[in-house]
Amino acid sequence: MIARILTAATALTVFGGEATAAPSVAASAPQIKVPAPVLGWASWNAFASSINFEILKTQVDAYAAPGGLKDAGYTYFNLDDGWWQGARDAAGNMVVNETEWPGGMKAVADYIHSKGLKAGIYTDAGASGCGYLNTTRPQSDGMTAGMRGHELRDAKQFQNWGFDFVKVD
């Protein structure tokens, strides 16, 4: 659709303050259909790292309510930085604060899915995320909230929790 619009349009060129029409350029064949972009929402712009399961559930409910973003075609609900502060168990698996995330991150993904949405989650490719910067939540031990050195383990953990999308900063 975009390709047809672009090729059917007449371009305008401005010379000395005067607009002149440039000839249309034919599209090269064959054309391919481009899928619509993925539409989603992430918690960071509204909540930064001040996020927990209760806030997330309230936002998911509003997102999925009649007339909400889900009805507008948004399919992903993404939990951004601030959900995890770097604790790992003896095997190197991420451990979350069960007070802030009752049932853990599987419960989060399950709740998002229960509303007919896809679940996304944030991580950082480095040793540390940036969620502690200019927010209410301090970094737990300085430099451990990223996936560096745990890439495969963390990817499998996100998959086991049921997340459909991972944002890697």
From TrEMBL:
Keyword Zinc included in the entry's annotation: no
SUPFAM superfamilies on file: (Trans)glycosidases (SSF51445)
GO biological process terms held by the UniProt record: carbohydrate metabolic process
Residue ranges the record marks as coiled coil: none
Reaction(s) catalysed (UniProt annotation): Hydrolysis of terminal, non-reducing alpha-D-galactose residues in alpha-D-galactosides, including galactose oligosaccharides, galactomannans and galactolipids
This protein's UniProt keywords: Disulfide bond, Glycosidase, Hydrolase, Signal
Hydrolase recorded as keyword: yes
Its EC number(s): 3.2.1.22
Broad class of enzyme this protein falls into: hydrolase
InterPro entries the record matches: Aldolase_TIM, GH, Glyco_hydro_27, Glyco_hydro_27/36_CS
Secretion signal, residue range per the UniProt entry: 1-21
GO molecular function list: alpha-galactosidase activity
Classification via Gene3D superfamilies: Aldolase class I (3.20.20.70)
PANTHER family reported for this sequence: ALPHA-GALACTOSIDASE MEL1 (PTHR11452:SF75), ALPHA-GALACTOSIDASE/ALPHA-N-ACETYLGALACTOSAMINIDASE (PTHR11452)
Family the UniProt entry places it in: Belongs to the glycosyl hydrolase 27 family.
Name by which UniProt lists this protein: Alpha-galactosidase
Species assigned in the record: Pseudoduganella namucuonensis
